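Batch manifest, entry 17 of 40.
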Amino acid sequence: MYDFIIIGGGTAGLSSAVYACRANKSTLVIEREAFGGQIVDAPTVENYPGIVSISGAQFASDLFDQAERAGAEFKCETVQKIIPQNGYTTVVTDEGKYDAKAVVIAAGCEHKRLGVVGEDRLIGSGVSYCALCDGAFFKDRTVAVVGGGNAAFSAASYLAGVASLVYVIHRRNEFRAEPTVVERVKALNNVRFITKAKVTELVGDDELTALKLDVNGAPQTLDVDGMFVAIGQQPDNGVFAPIALDESGYITADEKCRTNVKGIYAAGDCRAKTVRQLTTAAADGAIAVQTALSELLF
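Output type: structure tokens
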């Protein structure tokens, strides 16, 4: 029996672990992929208070080390379901079962896909959702980034230092990214912009060779060696029943990160909220643990 089980090893989950361990509570963090979350892919983090500039990978590594030194345990397993019991919760994974007095769900989100012909077939063969992970494979080649937010511009900025030419494809004329970020990327001489455009099909047998586009109603073919999709995220919270979800699949939780089930809390990008940033993820992690400590009277 653990005091806390934290599902998810991103910023919210690891922040929860730090706070739980500092309260001298036994804490298990379960993560199905890599610890650190999606911030690992960010070349530079410059919007976290107190840190002028740091790579996303270093930020995640430091936070993991902090949680580990505080006393958290870690398991790389996939959660299959949670079972609320009388006074505790059982977390069932693909490897076993674990019990805890309190559970913090910090499962984050997944990358959205375009949903076009050829996308699934060419994942790993020219199609990627992580510029930092796969960008080096496209050195001195031509690539496209699909999206118009901060993530897309971060990818384009990184790829501009690797690829010979980078296209940024966005369905609107205006970008959602912060203006300073947009201007920084626009100043790069090997980045081109295609707006009012959407990808309709991916071309290539074993490797991606081109994109078919609809540009303001007109068909166009764009020769590229790689495509990086950065159009947002979506939650994957179905396994957490009976936790209540909103119409978009995000966990419904109040300002104290409480879900509809006593003893189960939600933190970070997996919960319904309007701002999803490192700062709000870390804040959720702290709030969820503090709420549990005050409510469950360990």
